[in-house]
Write a structure and sequence with these properties.
Layout: H1 3-13, H2 22-30, H3 34-41, H4 45-53, E1 60-66, E2 70-77, E3 82-86, H5 91-102, E4 109-116, H6 122-132, E5 140-147, H7 151-158, E6 168-172, H8 181-184, H9 187-191, E7 194-200, H10 204-207, E8 216-221, H11 226-235
Helix pairs in contact: 3-4
Pfam families: F-box, FTH
Domain F-box: 14-65
Protein name: F-box domain-containing protein
């Protein structure tokens, strides 16, 4: 066999990227961290399709706004003990990567914590708009809203979450008078199992019957009467 023939035969058997089975590529992609996956999406359309179909390597998100300028997007994985953190003043990068993550139909979150230390709701509304643009509701097991969100934004965030997957809700209402009746009518509230309410102004004598379905309740309020506690105890038996 001539050298030229040997080279031709070698070229015929040489594998290219496109020859790798989709199933193998998908398994490799799912082993990567989130930052690596986002980089792959920019390499080619084929890789972008694979990443879009792959299960994200995280199960928790912390969305943190400080001084209405600095935005932190922190994601974690319970089992792999990994974390990815975006810190800085490039807000568009945060929202671009969040859009990639939230648009993945295989995303399942154990925890989603929302913290806002600023006094304006602009960046809250920006993420809510992104979540509302999805073609489905987010699957979240535990949702914690620890922020300056007003009443309308609290409702808007809850409505982006799939009711049957939401088990635990945590709300913090610092120095706000909230019409909590609006929460009671949401399917997300009715189907949850655990609720934490912090710094809330609430008339329990009128509202305690809205808590019957919960297995566990933690409330830190201005005042709860003995009668309220007795009524809630009776309702639980």
């Amino acid at each position: 066999m001539s050298d030229e023939t040997a080279i031709k035969d070698s070229n015929r058997t040489e594998k290219t990227f496109s020859d790798i089975p989709f199933e193998i590529l998908a398994k490799v992609v799912e082993k990567l961290d989130f930052k690596s996956q986002t980089k792959l999406q920019r390499v080619s359309r084929d890789l972008k399709k694979i990443v879009d179909r792959s299960k994200p390597p995280i199960d928790g998100i912390l969305y943190h706004i400080k001084d209405n300028i600095k935005v932190t997007f922190f994601c974690t994985n319970t089992y792999l003990h990994l974390s990815v953190q975006y810190t800085g003043y490039n807000k568009e990068r945060v929202f671009n990567d969040l859009a990639i993550l939230l648009n993945n139909p295989r995303l399942r979150l154990k925890r989603f914590r929302w913290v806002n230390e600023s006094s304006t709701p602009e960046l809250d509304q920006k993420l809510i708009d992104l979540m509302n643009s999805l073609d489905r509701k987010l699957e979240v097991s535990s949702l914690q809203l620890d922020s300056q969100l007003n009443e309308d934004l609290h409702i808007a965030v809850l409505q982006t979450v799939k009711p049957k997957t939401l088990e635990t809700m945590q709300f913090h209402f610092p120095n706000q008078l909230i019409n909590i009746d609006r929460l009671f009518h949401l399917d997300q509230w009715k189907k949850a199992k655990i609720v934490y309410l912090k710094d809330i102004k609430l008339d329990f004598s009128r509202a305690f019957h809205h808590f019957h379905q919960f297995k566990f309740i933690v409330v830190r309020a201005e005042a709860i009467s003995i009668d309220d506690m007795l009524n809630m105890r009776k309702a639980s038996f």
